[in-house]
Amino acid sequence: IMYLIFGIWSGMLGMSMSFIIRIELMNLNNNFNNNMIYYMMITIHAFIMIFFMTMPIIIGSLGNWLLPLMLSSSDLMFPRLNNFSFWLLLPSLMLMILNLFVNNNINTGWTLYPPLINQNLITLNFIIFSLHLNGLSSIFSSINFLSSIFIINN
């Protein structure tokens, strides 16, 4: 259930960021007055919608909670690995938001990686470590999901 609540909250946050981006695109005058903030908003919007909404809802809540419940294997619903993978998402989101408040943001537009040499080292570390925590969370959730399916089949 934690995954579902976190995914819905992230979806609302991402949807509000999407509205802000669309308002910026519709106006002739720039609301942000700074392309760096606009590009950072686009990058964080993509990360939030992919890593904090889609993956926790599909892998975390539906795969690790709903599937064992539907197969009457309720003892597989809340293993420790699933909880550990959930709690990796919160520091990852904090690092990504903290990146907004540091002087030079990662601002390559639609992608994160191409001109890494031009970026500030601190913000680069924040964003890359955030993505690694997200990846680790997804790997743990996937391992938990696959082991649940394996246990159910046996």
TrEMBL record:
One GO CC term, this protein: mitochondrial inner membrane
Membrane-crossing segments per the record: 6-25, 37-64, 84-102, 123-152
Membrane disposition: Multi-pass membrane protein
Any one GO molecular function term: heme binding
Name listed for the protein in its UniProt record: Cytochrome c oxidase subunit 1
Gene that specifies this protein: COI
Cofactor: heme
Organism classification: Eukaryota, Metazoa, Ecdysozoa, Arthropoda, Hexapoda
Known role: Component of the cytochrome c oxidase, the last enzyme in the mitochondrial electron transport chain which drives oxidative phosphorylation. The respiratory chain contains 3 multisubunit complexes succinate dehydrogenase (complex II, CII), ubiquinol-cytochrome c oxidoreductase (cytochrome b-c1 complex, complex III, CIII) and cytochrome c oxidase (complex IV, CIV), that cooperate to transfer electrons derived from NADH and succinate to molecular oxygen, creating an electrochemical gradient over the inner membrane that drives transmembrane transport and the ATP synthase.
Pathway where this protein functions: Energy metabolism; oxidative phosphorylation
Family: Belongs to the heme-copper respiratory oxidase family.
Domain Cytochrome oxidase subunit I profile: 1-154
Quaternary context: Component of the cytochrome c oxidase (complex IV, CIV), a multisubunit enzyme composed of a catalytic core of 3 subunits and several supernumerary subunits. The complex exists as a monomer or a dimer and forms supercomplexes (SCs) in the inner mitochondrial membrane with ubiquinol-cytochrome c oxidoreductase (cytochrome b-c1 complex, complex III, CIII).
Signal peptide: none
Catalytic activity from the UniProt record: 4 Fe(II)-[cytochrome c] + O2 + 8 H(+)(in) = 4 Fe(III)-[cytochrome c] + 2 H2O + 4 H(+)(out)
Main localization, broad class: mitochondrion
GO biological process per UniProt: electron transport coupled proton transport; mitochondrial electron transport, cytochrome c to oxygen
EC nos: 7.1.1.9
Localization in the cell: Mitochondrion inner membrane
Keywords assigned by UniProt, alphabetized: Copper, Electron transport, Heme, Iron, Membrane, Metal-binding, Mitochondrion, Mitochondrion inner membrane, Respiratory chain, Translocase, Transmembrane, Transmembrane helix, Transport
InterPro entries reported for this sequence: Cyt_c_oxase-like_su1_dom, Cyt_c_oxase-like_su1_sf, Cyt_C_Oxase_1
A Pfam family recorded for this sequence: COX1
